[in-house]
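The following record pairs a protein chain with its ligand, S-adenosylmethionine.
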Amino acid sequence: MNYRHAYHAGNFADVVKHLALVALLSHLKKKDKGFRVIDTHAGRGLYDLAGDEAARTGEAAQGIARLRALIPHDGYPESLKTYLDLVQSAGEGRYPGSPLIAARLLRPQDRLIAIEKHAEEFAVLSSVLSPYRTATAEQADGYARLAALLPPPERRGLVLIDPPYEAPDEFARVGAAVGGALRRFATGIYLIWFPVKSKSEVDRFCGEIVAAGAAKALRIDTEVEAKANIKEKIGDKERLARAGIIVVNPPYGFADEMNTAFSIVATPLAARTELAWLAGES
Ligand code: SAM
């Protein structure tokens, strides 16, 4: 295993993904009926921004750290206020990952299954989630477990698919996983993260998600410090400058909520965001 999210936690891509996660969870909480969250690639749940990994890339410094000066007020969309509160309550120099964000927002009738394959990450994840009775951490392959866990007994839910994209076939695996998942649970909400290293590869991937049966799908791309070259060299590492999410079955009002939130965070992040309907609405 090479990928460690600790190098990237709290970067611009995490901010966008986690803002979307908070907005989708808030929507699901509008009804009393419980729902299930399945986080197929959960990571460790809590990151130390003062640690070596974060310091080596400086990604959090150019991401979440730039939002510290924002003071949430009534003019902010609820999702942005909630996200900023969650980050602040994780503690000074710490950043909450997707499973901790979900665990913090669930009600007693809701459930979270957070899946992480790698032992070291899983050990931390288990301890981070241990205070939350509604959350379960599993050490397993997220794709295999997703197929087994759908449809959820509640018939309401959100699936977050956020792999490291280290393997050359990761886009294909995500496409296949979403296809299988939609056949089992067509009404679920899916939040899928992806890096943009090759525009044609990502466009093809988005086409596959629609072809897999997504009747309604929104794509949101974010680019930081727009450059002709999409990658920037940091030592021997390449820093990602463009990333995206696809939301399948986004709830009504989600695109507007995201637009408003991005209009507030775009300037401090020096980011540009583009929303496009891949299927439905527009
Ligand atoms: N979702 C997390 C968040 O937003 O805080 C970040 C996840 S990180 C991008 C991807 C994680 O997937 C890594 O912790 C990696 O160890 C884990 N992973 C890699 N392959 C996996 C697999 N097949 N099943 C489950 N987890 C996997």
